[in-house]
Structure of Ethanolamine-phosphate phospho-lyase:
Amino acid sequence: MATENYDKQKTIDLRKKHVGPSCKVFFSHDPIKIVRARGQYMYNEKDEKYLDCINNVAHVGHCHPDVVEAGAKQMELLNTNSRFLHDNLVLYAQRLQATLPEKLSVCYFVNSGSEANDLALRLAWQYTGHKDIITLENAYHGHVSSLIDISPYKFHQMTGAEPSQHVHVAFSPDIYRGKYCEDHPDPATAYAENVKDIIEQAHKKGRKIAAFIAESLQSCGGQVIPPVGYFQKVAQHVRNAGGIFIADEVQVGFGRVGTHFWGFQLQGEDFVPDIVTMGKPIGNGHPMSCVITTREVAESFMSSGMEYFNTFGGNPVSCAIGLAVLDVIEKEDLQRNALHIGGYLTQLLDDLKKRHLLVGDVRGRGLFIGLDLVRNREKRTPATAEAQDVIYRLKEQRILLSADGPHRNVLKFKPPMCFSREDAELVVEKIDQILTDLEKTLGLQMSEAVISENGHTKRKEPSDENGLVHPSNGSSHKHTGTLPLDKKNNKKQKT
Amino acid sequence: MATENYDKQKTIDLRKKHVGPSCKVFFSHDPIKIVRARGQYMYNEKDEKYLDCINNVAHVGHCHPDVVEAGAKQMELLNTNSRFLHDNLVLYAQRLQATLPEKLSVCYFVNSGSEANDLALRLAWQYTGHKDIITLENAYHGHVSSLIDISPYKFHQMTGAEPSQHVHVAFSPDIYRGKYCEDHPDPATAYAENVKDIIEQAHKKGRKIAAFIAESLQSCGGQVIPPVGYFQKVAQHVRNAGGIFIADEVQVGFGRVGTHFWGFQLQGEDFVPDIVTMGKPIGNGHPMSCVITTREVAESFMSSGMEYFNTFGGNPVSCAIGLAVLDVIEKEDLQRNALHIGGYLTQLLDDLKKRHLLVGDVRGRGLFIGLDLVRNREKRTPATAEAQDVIYRLKEQRILLSADGPHRNVLKFKPPMCFSREDAELVVEKIDQILTDLEKTLGLQMSEAVISENGHTKRKEPSDENGLVHPSNGSSHKHTGTLPLDKKNNKKQKT
């Protein structure tokens, strides 16, 4: 095949020889060689097709022709740095700004989510004159050294690693596995109080808070959806301490959550972060990224006297690609697709929960969904090995899914936004079969009575945006069977 | 014009509104809007042509068709992360490795020089178990926070800024403006002794050295060429202290120095760094970058247990572009062009020195050249305002050049590698006129006698690779009039 220079074994051998061993491949005992991709499908060297349920970078679909054309055309014309004026830069800044609350008006273009989050820290340090950062348990914000410091997901991989002195780790606002669960009367306030406590403790040590940083929905941390109101309350505590709020949208932005363009908007219109960072999906795979902040923060950064120059950031090619991505999201109504197909997929997974004891929790917004596998529903014991089994068996059936979270037991759905109803049905059908097999082996079978009782909840409790039910007074998660595609639900989804 | 959406003033206004004010444009009082570029030429919105003498990112020439085609073709086919196997990644790693000493065999692909240098620090910290970094005066290694820490060029822009505790600043090995000049019997040893002293001081405080980092030739620092043997001696001191040597080739790599593919190779075959970082020219403008190190360092990094994943790094598009850049360098013999045209340009600038008192020093290797302007040759007083004047007047004549170094008085030449003899003649002719004007205004005129004496040196002293003469026992720099394109010189240049 023209797209292959070496046979697969040779590729593996050369990779072992010349690529850092810390750079892991998926399915290391039998990795996949991909030679082309289109939409939500990837093809290996034998032209076998894989359904991609994980690649949130290929946001508008792998190799989208409009994006490719925009990039190729601009590459032919000009690709230089932002010390020269260029319309693509300002057009793109305008377009991004228009998706955000008005006060988030000043952009910095960089090359990766890591560069974006590092710059966000620099902005916060300069603006506040403080040094300390509050981050969440299991958070991942990037691979440069300043971000490893604030990423428990990473630094906990090192033996005996402790957070740096200037880093404080707050509870993850996880109402399934966290300190305050769905049976708590007000988890948003309770989790925000934890941040307040941390601030007070830091102050007692003479330390000062520069920023609170969180993904708007935690991704690697286990597809965690913070309770509504949490960000507002945290922002208040942090701002009272002279700090600012950084919303990391690198994984979840650009319409993925369905009801809104940005994940933080799920918290309500009354919440506006001081800095928003974006990345992965922004260029559909092209290395680019952006930090957007307020005029006040930007001017304070300038007042340090230090120029900010990023060699590749905001070049005309990146901006042309960024503009094309925004165009495709609009033209193909991909945010709405995320809402509908995401809702449908959530519902199908929810149905799985009714039949499979291994499914502990289904949670998500739009096409950002987690399936939390457990060995024991009461204890919520993470079913780590089983989650690995599911993704390996799916891979054999040419479906790409991954498991993440601190226990690596949460199946993560974050497919290209063109994901279809049929794709959703296919992956859920396969998971259904695999869970059936696994439960048979484990002797975990649900009684008819339980299945019927689960079905019963359908008529009892209202569902939220994605058809999920979070009963406020029960200890277990229950979900309706209502399809989010019906009219009543669509209305709810818009609120 | 189809390539312009807004008139220039509107672009400026929007940029003021939506782009971080720390992001400066060139010639801020009358910035340039560029809409297309080709080879070593850039064109503004009126289709007026500028000669580009500064853009070392557009290494093989702006918008080189081979590079554009390679990128466009691969974008159409596949652009995904390196958790899947792909031949481009291993092909590219092989090709890069082949340009380096054999022990530098393991690659990490990232998105920018900043990401590369940050990763180099992480590798050094993990491998050595030490924390401290020795950097050079006026060094610039990138914009992420860990690199601002080791970049005096940046942190000195902030009022009252001092280096962090773990950062030690060594003398810049600058034999024109540094502590030990060309009249010193052995500046290489003397500058290396300074590093040794720093290590000893650090040890006295109980601190331990992780790495010494330096650009192979200092760029922003003022186009500084370290004396041959300096790196070897520094490496010995640093390795004796358990640290490693990081060569930053972000600005100067990929054949620019003419005689060699990498700048550090100018130090001799007996010098091999432990880590080499590359960036800017690597993708001719595409955001990509690489860190190459030894098997030992890479395995130690892996042993921490922390995976290294870079979302965009090493994607098939970046690798296709990287491969195309290497192909063009070879096919068009651009390293040799850098040697010859760089030598010729150096010679022309050298001739300027004979006629203009404002020229204090001409130094360079290949197409990496600095023209150090001075108000007083004896005192070597930096002619900062005059350097600014030169670049502004050149701009009016549509020639792009910049001034850098700690005093912003060094005119920096680092043009696309396809720079021609005619380009060299044009820029030097214009500088000649401008210097004549400036000297007239300043009342700085060289006597006929001096011009004749300068000419006289031609027959007295041998020239080095680029036709430069560094007399070992004089206090002033003198240069031959010998063209480096003649046979004898070409031979010398190969050594």
Notes: Residues 334-494 of chain A form a domain with the Aspartate Aminotransferase, domain 1 fold (CATH 3.90.1150.10). Confidence is low (pLDDT under 50) at residues 456-495 of chain A. Chain A touches chain B through 107 residues (CB under 8 Å).
